Amino acid sequence: MTKLIWDPLHECLDRKDLERLQLERLRTTLQRVAKVPCYQDKFQKAGITPDDIHSLADLAKLPFTTKEDLRINYPYGMFAVPMREIVRIHSSSGTTGKPTVVGYSRKDLNDWSSLVARFMTAAGVVADDIVHIAFGYGLFTGAFGLHYGAEMIGSAVIPMSGGNTDRQIMILKDYGATVLVCTPSYALTLADRIEKLGHNPRTYLSLRVGLFGGEPWSEEMRREIEDRLNIVATDNYGLSEIIGPGVAGECLQKKGMHIFEDHFLPEIINPDTGEVLPPGEKGELVLTNIVQEAIPLIRYRTRDITRLHYESCVCGRTLVRMDKTMGRSDDMLIIKGVNVFPTQIEEILFQVEGCEPHYLLVVERKGTLDTLEILVEVNENIFFDEMRKQRAFVEMLEKKLATSIGLHAKVKLVEPSSIPRHEGKANRVIDKRTHS
Amino acid sequence: MKVEQISIFIENKSGRLAEVARVLGEKGVNIRALSLADTSDFGILRLIVDNTDLAKETLKAGGFTVSKTEVVAIEVPDQPGGLSSILQVLDDSKINVEYMYAFVERNADNAVIIFRFDDTDGAISTLQKKGVNILPGERIYGL
């Protein structure tokens, strides 16, 4: 029988039962991490022991863990089990400094697979599906996570990996893939390329479901992907420090990503003060891993900004839902004292008819003044033969943006395909200011 | 009585205009008339060529954003006051001009002015009633 919910026992728990399970698992995890030198130190400094935790509310008494802790304890210092129990090592992309290293025990790998199977099932993936994975295989957790989840469901997995768009399209077409796994920007790159090859991306492939992740994307981008590729596109969330993909995922309601709370305790904090915010408030997501054996992190600061929704979902899952991440607390742009998230700008561009998602934000400091310039690729829909209309279009866009982000940004139209495309994470910001 | 014109979006950086001319030249497209409207960031290049469809396809394939528009070619006497008389007719008829540009016909006593109107069809019928000489596209493409 086709499963609509992978693990109904854990995904549909009554909140009271869930909280009882969470507290029990949290206390067990704390006993285990108390042997890790980093946590010994942190707990001692905070004047707290695992025995002081009597309720979930006591979680707020525990110190945070940050990426910096992982760097200081590079590579294996945060592991809570001896190396003989580790069966896999992954790490973050680590664009600055040393990467962060994470390990998995055999049980962790199995848990990871079933967590991914949960959100893939929630997106409608079944054993009959053929799953094309276009994430890069390697230290990055994305490809392996989705790979194991799809295999656990019983789907046929094509471990395509990244790059070579023409070959991707050939394999997608010839092997009859029904599920696409990649970054959302790469999904649009595929659609562009299929069009350039003279085919209709809505009908050329057999795809019906897409699972996209690895970078933030807006609702408008989802609509464009769904429309251009004629698929259902769902979002999922994870980070390598906390298992990888499989922390949370959308159901077909697409009303936020269900966090698998029997494995991860979510909190929303004020990123400046560290104070826990009440349910429904926007802030930084903090996660505590209460099941993992190899490297369970306590109150890990994800730097991702989101909001949690505890209202019940019609899909039947009782798990809390998180909004799509609205940027990161650390790469948020501060321009003339205004906080700007690239995704806000993306939303506005998508609302303007005819605009495409290819844009680049350029932040510069001219004298003492910060300026934001938004490069937008022109196309036939937003190109006017009359200069009057062309300028009016730019002014309209600037006005809309100013209203939304509370800052004047100069819009500069550029020629099509002049903004570099990335097959991995889309880099939409160039910050030319020098920060001391 | 309309003339087909193509408009091309050009970023204000070196070599872009030359690139347009190069790709058209390679395909044997001959440029009959041109005008460039520009701002500090970008320009709109308008061309009348001997093969509009080929020019449009060629430029699109070359990665340019191109649109096809309809303009009106009016013949005016190549003498002082020639332009003034036409503009007076337009003013009297309350026809709004979006933009205009001129080129001088070879071996003839008349100049040709290209007009882009708000309402192309309305402008043509009004101008014809006033006896203004409107040139058909075929005349312009083959000039």
Kindly list the characteristics that best describe this protein.
heterodimer; A: 436 residues; alpha/beta; Rossmann fold; GMP Synthetase, Chain A, domain 3; four-stranded mixed β-sheet; 12 helices; 20 strands; 31% helix; B: 143 residues; VC0802-like; 33% helix
Q: Can you lay out the helices and strands and say which pair or pack?
A:
The complex is a heterodimer of chains A (436) and B (143).
Chain A: H1 8-11, H2 15-33, H3 37-46, H4 67-72, E1 86-91, E2 101-105, H5 106-122, E3 130-133, H6 141-153, E4 156-158, H7 165-174, E5 179-182, H8 184-196, H9 201-204, E6 209-212, H10 219-229, E7 232-239, E8 244-250, E9 257-259, E10 264-269, E11 283-289, E12 300-306, E13 308-309, E14 321-322, E15 333-335, E16 338-340, H11 342-351, E17 359-366, E18 369-377, H12 387-405, E19 410-414, E20 429-431
Parallel strand pairs in A: 3-4, 3-5, 5-6, 6-7, 17-20, 18-19
Antiparallel strand pairs in A: 1-2, 7-8, 8-9, 9-14, 10-11, 11-12, 13-14, 15-16, 17-18
Helix pairs in contact in A: 5-6, 7-8, 8-10, 11-12
Chain B: E1 3-11, H1 16-26, E2 31-38, E3 42-49, H2 52-61, E4 66-77, H3 82-92, E5 97-104, E6 110-117, H4 120-129, E7 134-135, H5 137-141
Describe this structure as you would to a colleague:
The complex is a heterodimer of chains A (436) and B (143). The longest helix of chain A has 19 residues, at 15-33. Chain A folds into two domains: 1-329, 3-Layer(aba) Sandwich (Rossmann fold); 333-431, GMP Synthetase, Chain A, domain 3. Chain A has helices at 8-11, 15-33, 37-46, 67-72, 106-122, 141-153, 165-174, 184-196, 201-204, 219-229, 342-351, 387-405, and strands at 86-91, 101-105, 130-133, 156-158, 179-182, 209-212, 232-239, 244-250, 257-259, 264-269, 283-289, 300-306, 308-309, 321-322, 333-335, 338-340, 359-366, 369-377, 410-414, 429-431. Chain A has a nine-stranded mixed β-sheet, with helices on both faces. With 436 residues, chain A is of the alpha/beta class. Chain B starts with a strand and ends with a helix. Helix content of chain B is 33%, strand content 38%. Chain B is α+β, with helices and mostly antiparallel strands and 143 residues long. The mean pLDDT of chain B is 89. The chains are: A alpha/beta (436), B alpha+beta (143). Chains A and B meet through helix 12 and strand 19 of A and strand 1, strand 3 and strand 4 of B.
